[in-house]
Specification:
- The radius of gyration is 14 Å and the shape is globular.
- The protein has one domain: 3-Layer(aba) Sandwich (Ribose 5-phosphate Isomerase B, Chain: A).
- The chain is of the alpha/beta class and about 150 residues long.
- A 5-stranded parallel sheet has the order 2-1-3-5-4, with helices on both faces.
- Helices cover about 45% and strands about 15% of the residues.
- It has helices at about 10-25, 45-55, 70-75, 90-100, 115-125, 135-140; strands at about 1-5, 30, 60-65, 85, 105-110.
- Bound molecules: D-ribose.
């Protein structure tokens, strides 16, 4: 499993913490697509970078972080093949994987405490897609012309 991560300035510190958690505790390889500081940048750039890496199979999954997680998830979802889910608690992280086969996790750095954010990351990584009746719906998303 290889995970691509990216954030804007608002998500930078949480992105760094997520990177340490993935590499240290979860033993997951991480590719960091930036940003590299708290200097102001535009979140779509980093949402697109991570989403393109997922769509092109450079990485297996992505994690994107901005202030709320909203803008960067909107950007990631513009990339065909990407199903980005903005998760804010353990339940949404589990369901994003089980029912939606989400391949990108979006988190809000200004809306999630560190412990909650890392729990979301852990569950997103560990939870398998259920398939079955959900596949038709995921296919409808995948096949929408864009
Ligand atoms: C940056 O101030 C903020 O707008 C951005 O991080 C994000 O929350 C947008 O959705």
């Amino acid at each position: 499993m290889k995970v691509g991560i990216g954030s804007d300035h608002a998500g930078f510190e949480l992105k760094q913490a997520i990177k340490i958690y993935l590499e240290g505790s979860m033993k997951i390889e991480v590719v960091d697509y930036g940003t590299d500081s708290k200097e102001s940048v535009d979140y779509p750039e980093y949402g697109f970078k991570v989403a393109n890496a997922v769509a092109e199979n450079e990485v297996d999954r992505g994690i994107v972080v901005c202030g709320t997680g909203i803008g960067i998830s909107m950007a990631a979802n513009k990339v065909k093949g990407v199903r980005a889910a903005l998760c804010y608690d353990p339940y949404t992280a589990i369901m994003a994987r089980k029912h939606n086969d989400a391949n990108v996790l979006a988190i809000g750095a200004r809306t999630s405490q560190l412990e909650n954010a890392l729990a979301i990351v852990g569950l997103f990584m560990k939870t398998d897609y259920e398939g079955g009746r959900h596949q038709k719906r995921v296919d409808m998303i995948n096949n929408y012309p864009s």
